[in-house]
Design goal:
The chain is α/β, with parallel strands linked by helices. It has helices at 23-34, 47-50, 59-74, 110-127, 153-170, 183-186, 194-199, 215-218, 223-226, 228-239, 264-275, 317-332, 363-372; strands at 3-7, 40-43, 78-84, 87-88, 91-92, 133-139, 175-177, 204-208, 247-252, 281-286, 340-343, 377-380. Helix 1 (23-34) packs parallel to helix 3 (59-74), helix 4 (110-127) packs parallel to helix 5 (153-170) and helix 11 (264-275) runs parallel beside helix 12 (317-332).
Amino acid sequence: MPSFGANYVPSAGWFYSWLDYDPAAVRRDFADLAGLGLDHVRVFPIWPWIQPNRAIIRDAAIADLLDTIDAAAEHGLSVSVDLIQGHLSSFDFLPSWALTWHKASLFENPTVREGLTAYCEKVAAAVATRPNVFAITLGNEVNNLWPDSGTTPQTSTAWAQELLTTVKKAAPDVLALHSVFDDAWYKPDHPFSPVDVTDLGELSTVHSWVFNGVSRVDGPLGPATLTHADYLVELAAATSLDPARPVWLQEIGVPGPDIPVDLQAEFVRRTVEQVVHNPALYGITWWSSHDIDRRLLDFPDREYDLGLFTVDHQRKPAAEALAAVIADVKANGVWPQQATTLTAPYNLRTDLHRRAEIAPGSDFHLRWVAARAGGPVRIVLP
């Protein structure tokens, strides 16, 4: 059975709460999530607040992270830790020693990479002491840090390989993962590729957001929108050289205005039902656990209301729908169905200049959606 979890966004103070850590508030939030039947959370320490100077990695900040992990364990939740934040809800968080007159590429500059390696090594070793930590991801959609941090396909791949080696050495019993958003799949000039997803780390991760254009194909409850998560899982499964490599749907949510409030519960139910029986699926992690307090300023409007819970801990319709699907899966299991196949228009591993040919609304995507109406459709490479 796939795992179900949430990307943890603290209800009080968003990620700024790391600056004034409140153990009781964290535990209250995790009680919310455990009540839905979730089994894991993905947590996001903020890199520059742990390593404000290249020579300083703050033990007090790591202690707060470890307490968060312990709080999750108290509520029966396992934990995945992201390291490089990096990019969160449209804001970038980078340390001052990589900015201002020190400005250098996160991916290319050897001094920045040296500092980042030290950070990843120390934090990974610390969180690996907790038995409920199952995964460490390099960062949240690190490809959002380009083009501000310059890189090339070769450099971004080598950068990730180097840090994954560091993480695995520091935390040998924990999954070491790499995470990028879907420009890696759909944008011909993007310097991160599908192979980064499918060959680096110990399983593949995909992030399904329908504001990438897919909701414009057929609306909030159209088949293209409802199957986009399954489409990404299929792309990742097809691109991997290992037919048994799992795919983690690491982010999916109900962004407005693409998914109106009155349709969000139905979107959750039908989207999860489309993907949950996919044999490649490792787990589903919802973005996000809690809304953002609207007293906090300057977020894109859609970011405020993505939570399963309000900031005052009220379950939203999306939470109720997700809890119902989880209960059904726990009671009845998953049942992979007989699938048809559709051949990709090019080799997804190599012909990166052709990535637009599989993007939302492309001829191939629309053919896959039409075929998917009759049941699961495996993608195969030519």
